[in-house]
Amino acid sequence: MNYRSLSMLSRFVKISSNIGNRFLLRSYIIEDEDLARLLSKTAGVTIYAMFTVTTLGTLGVDTKPLLAGIGIIGFTIGSALKEVATNFISEIFLIINKPFIRRY
Prior knowledge:
mainly alpha; Helix Hairpins; 4 helices; flat; mechanosensitive monoatomic ion channel activity; MscS_archaea/bacteria_type; MscS_channel_TM-2
């Protein structure tokens, strides 16, 4: 694995993230710009993580302990931040659905 391929992957993720962000905003699926940016960044981080695990597996590194550790850390953080995550997801649903109508 050399720097050129990592640079190409980085450019690919940035370009696909920007395309996804524009698609979400122009299709009116998500009207809030910050939420669209959050979703595209999350997708980019997920692609980087999958690429890293795949690359390590290709190089012969045993990825099972790494994935188990990531799972345990994710479960622990998820349990600790349950209420915060619930409020955050509720806020996302409110932004998407916009149930409140402004009356002037």
